[in-house]
Amino acid sequence: MMKLEINSAESMQKLGRAIAQTARPHDVLLLTGDLGAGKTTMTQGIGRALGIRRPIKSPTFTIVREYRDAKMPLFHMDFYRLEHDDLSSIDLNAYLEEPGLVVIEWPQLIMNDLPDSHLQLKIERVDDSWDSTKRVVNFEPQGKRNDTWVKEIIEEFNK
After folding, report:
1. What DSSP line would sit under 60-128, residue for residue?
2. Model-level pTM?
3. How many other C-beta atoms are found inside a 10 Å radius of the C-beta of residue 38?
4. Cα of 72 vs its chain's centroid, Å
5. Around Cβ 70, how many Cβ atoms within 10 Å?
6. How many other C-beta atoms can be found within 10 angstroms of the C-beta atom of residue 45?
7. Of the candidates 93, 98, 84, the residue with the CA atom closest to the CA atom of residue 26
């Protein structure tokens, strides 16, 4: 398993940029980690690198935010508040069929509904101090495309 140490919010956004620069249409990125781990911060880096000009906010209450005004559409989802696995409120498959990048925060609730091919990033805090920005990001690729994608992301991040 590939790991990356992140020491600042800027570094987390840089990882987001590396993800965006190496992403292809139909890629699915799953982000797991505690509240405040950096999932939305990373997604902001992805959005900026895709050329999205408006602010990228956590879609906690809307479930999905669409950003079509980009080099590649970004569909940012957050299932933290999804009730009882109730996916009927959104058409997940329609988003997966679009030629964009799907980023999902809190995917644990819908794992059975996701494609087998995806890249999961598990973000862990390194220490407990409330203001610490140290994180370890664990890359867990599923499928050949995502094995390749991880290598491309790490290479781009290390430039």
Report:
1. TTTSEEEE-SSSS-EEEEE-TT--TT-GGGS-HHHHHHSSSEEEEESGGGGGGGS-SSEEEEEEEESS-
2. 0.91
3. 26
4. 15
5. 18
6. 23
7. 98
- The backbone torsions φ and ψ at residue 2, rounded to the nearest 5 degrees and listed phi first, read -90, 140
Tokens coding 107:
């995917």
The closest alpha carbon to 146, from 107, 102, 111, belongs to 102
Query: What's the pLDDT score for residue 49?
Result: 97
Q: What is the pLDDT of residues 101-119, one digit of tens each?
A: 999 998 987 888 888 999 9
Handedness of CA 149, 66, 68, 50 (dihedral sign): negative
Amino acid in position 12:
M
CA torsion angle 103 19 121 102 (round to 10): 10
Hey, is 6 helix, strand or coil? Answer: strand
Check: CB of residue 50 under 8 Å from CB of residue 41.
Answer: no
β-partners of residue 135 are 6, 125
Provide the token pair at 114: 């996701």
| Axis crossing angle, helix 144-157 with helix 9-22, rounded to the nearest 10 | 130
CA distance linking residue 113 with residue 31, whole number of Å: 16
